[in-house]
Amino acid sequence: MTEIELVEATLAGDASAFNDLVRQYQVAVYNLAFRMLGRAADAEDIAQETFFRAYTKLGTFDLEQKLSTWLLSITAHLCIDHLRRKKAVWLEEGEYLSWMASNEEAPESATLRKEQEREVQRLMETLPAKYRLILVLRYWHDLSYAEIGEATHLAEGTVKTRLHRARQMLLKQAGTVPSLKPVLHPASA
Known about the structure:
It contains nine helices and no strands. It has 189 residues and is an all-alpha fold. It has one domain (3-93, 105-179): RNA polymerase sigma factor, region 2, helix turn helix motif (Rna Polymerase Sigma Factor, Chain: A), CATH 1.10.1740. Helix 2 crosses helix 4 (67-86), helix 3 packs across helix 4 (67-86) and helix 7 (145-152) packs across helix 8. The relative contact order is 0.11.
């Protein structure tokens, strides 16, 4: 079934259709929550709440819109609310998901990549949520400026401005960490 058919079937009471939608989008929803919050347990809670809200509000979903954008919008808002309540979020050892995985890496390359990932995640956690969200949607979910604007209810120009500021903040935070230069600013590497 297509995405629209699954939504319509869910609205007609077919629970298995909604389960198919969850399976289709659970990784994207979880990854956004994890990138925003940095903890697997919190990301799982937010993902679960996202799908609960999506199920209860599916009748308000505009079938002209992309379901992925709508779900990521719900996820983003739940993450921001969570961050407002929690303030400090720490990445726990062993809970980091690889975002540049390769099965054919040499061990030393894999180790360097993991260190870079941890450092980037640490730097991401220093950013205000509104900037972190834009970075995650752009670089981890490959959304266009227009899609980010739709998901966050921001004008496209605001999205571009926040993305630019977020990159500048990351570069400033990175300081003189040479191993991060190719990761955060590949053009100058």
